[in-house]
Specification:
OB fold (Dihydrolipoamide Acetyltransferase, E2P), mainly beta, 7 strands, globular, about 170 residues, 5-stranded mixed beta barrel
């Protein structure tokens, strides 16, 4: 069975993006995403909010777009892959590790003026990094024409028209 590494997240930025450039000139942007969910509490039916914080790294064009348009509190929808990083802590000499998301596509939610305060997608822009910071061959039978996901539109039916008993001559 083939392995599959895909993550789809939607949350709010906890801080402004941290932008760096590699020695070869590739832009890297670090984001921290807060993702909220409600879970049922004890037997009394109370619900409580649970927040998960996720570190996200963007490379190349996706990093440039994130640095240009994202700010603290802004809601963002992204897809990417999990990456497990390990390193030696210079202060303690211990081996450290961290699980992070490498963003390959991102979609801005809300408008820049409102900061996405209510979380409602008033304006959406879809940006994708074609290579995800590395060269990758895709050799599957899936349709690859769309580079990102978009939120389905909600069909709100129009309110019923008032009925008139009058005859209108036309």
């Amino acid at each position: 069975m083939a392995n599959y590494n895909k993550v789809i997240l939607m949350g709010n930025l906890t801080a402004d993006p941290d932008v760096r450039t590699t020695p070869k000139g590739t832009q890297v942007t670090e984001l921290r995403l807060a993702i909220n969910r409600f879970v049922s509490g004890d037997n009394n039916g109370d619900r409580r909010e649970e927040t998960t914080f996720v570190d996200v790294t963007c490379w190349g064009r996706t990093a440039e777009i994130a640095a240009q348009y994202l700010t603290k509190g802004r809601p963002v929808f992204l897809e990417g892959r999990l990456q497990y990083d390990t390193w030696d802590d210079k202060a303690t000499g211990q081996k450290r590790s961290k699980l992070r998301v490498v963003a390959e596509n991102l979609q801005l939610m809300g408008s820049p003026r409102d900061g996405g305060g209510n979380g409602a997608p008033q304006q959406q822009r879809n940006y994708g990094n074609q290579n995800g910071g590395y060269n990758r061959q895709q050799n599957n039978n899936y349709d690859q024409q769309s580079s990102g996901y978009s939120q389905p539109r909600q069909n709100n039916p129009a309110p019923p028209a008032e009925e008139f008993d009058d005859d209108i001559p036309f």
